[in-house]
Amino acid sequence: MNAARRGRTIEHVMKRSRLVPYSLIALSFVPVVAGAFRVSELAAGAPIDDGNARFFAQPLPVVLHIIGATVYCLLGAFQFDARLRRRRPGWHRAAGRVLIPCGLVAALTGMWMAVSYDLPPIDGLGVLLLRLVFGGAMALAVVLGFVRVRQGDFTAHRAWMMRAYAIGLGAGTQAFTHLPWLLAGDAPDELGRFTAMAAGWLINLAVAEWLIRRSRRRPAPARTAMTAIVPVR
């Protein structure tokens, strides 16, 4: 009886986990659309103004960043689909081979843009430091996740990759942390911009850490069903 109930619980959790990728894609919607608009603007040779002059002057880092981040966020979302992992275990590893370089490109080009582009008026030194800190943390998490899976430590691999993805998805959450100013019809000042940017990354990391700790407290079968993003060998 307990085995049957456990089986039904695992199946129920796996069905719910199918909603996770689409929720993550929805969270990525604003930055993905904004990135596509920026690339099309550069490709079409749109009029140059104060908001886009730095991108036209040096388009390579922003184009690489948009491509890397878009693939990382959209493809990475499906690493959280437990049913897909269960039915196609090789898919996770194949996707990982794409996601690792894309994650590194997104993180490193974000840092490149932070130091090479002229800062917008509302982006002070604090926002510059945030981008360097979180970009470096994302790149480090991707590297540690890769090292851990090569060592066969799948639990640590999963944790580091979840942290990296949480940072990579920061722009999606930042669209919401900027909402108070958007609804007020005003632009944030330097402190407000720093607060909104920091909150987006910290909220995502807090959720990731909660999920990591929660999965470690669960019995083995339920943990596998909940996370299901570690390669099975």
How many strands, which pairing sense, and closed or not: the largest β-sheet? Answer: none
SSE order, as H and E?
A: HHHHHHHHHHHH
Q: How much of the residues is beta strand, in percent?
A: under 5%
Count every helix, treating DSSP H or I runs of 4 or more residues as helices: 12
The total tally of domains equals 1
Approximate helicity band: over 70%
- Class from secondary-structure proportions: mainly alpha
DSSP E strands, number: 0
Radius of gyration over alpha carbons? 19 Å
Oligomer: single chain
Distance between the termini: 29 Å
**Spatial shape:** globular
Question: On the 0-100 scale, what is the average pLDDT?
Answer: 86
pLDDT < 50 stretches: 220-233
What does the model show?
82% of the residues lie in helices and 0% in strands. With 233 residues, the chain is mostly helical. It has one domain (2-227). It is globular and about 50 Å long. Residues 220-233 have low confidence and may be disordered.
List the helices and strands and how they pair.
Layout: H1 2-17, H2 19-44, H3 53-57, H4 59-77, H5 82-87, H6 89-116, H7 125-150, H8 154-168, H9 170-177, H10 179-183, H11 190-217, H12 220-227
Would you summarize the structure shown here?
This protein is mainly alpha-helical and 233 residues long. It is 82% helix and 0% strand.
List keywords for this structure.
single chain; disordered C terminus; 233 residues; 12 helices; mainly alpha
